[in-house]
Design goal:
105 residues; mainly alpha; 3 helices; 80% helix
Length: 105
């Protein structure tokens, strides 16, 4: 089986980057599952915002893998990355505001 990488990487760089992204994807996916469990247990808006932010971290990692494999164009990678950064910040801020207001539903 031959794996092709984006034309901006050599094989050594791609291997190291894929290993790092695989670990990041695995870990953030586990954290996302834990956050979903916490949302189901607590049933509160702040927990939902945090879970959404962690879910976006999983999306970032998956897009990164796609970019290394040459499936996701670099422009799309940057647009998704910047968009998810913004949404993560909004979700975390929303969680803090809701928690500070005592909003639980």
């Amino acid at each position: 089986m031959t794996v092709t990488f984006g034309d901006w990487l050599n094989t050594g760089e791609a291997t190291a980057l894929l290993a790092t992204l695989a670990l990041a994807t695995l870990c953030t996916s586990g954290l996302f599952l834990l956050s979903v469990w916490a949302v189901r247990r607590r049933r509160s808006r702040p927990y939902t915002f945090v879970a959404a932010a962690i879910g976006l971290l999983v999306v970032r990692s998956v897009v990164g893998v796609g970019t290394v494999l040459g499936v996701v164009p670099m422009l799309t990678h940057h647009l998704v990355g910047s968009g998810t950064d913004l949404l993560i910040a909004v979700f975390i801020l929303a969680a803090v505001v809701c928690a500070g207001d005592g909003v639980t539903t």
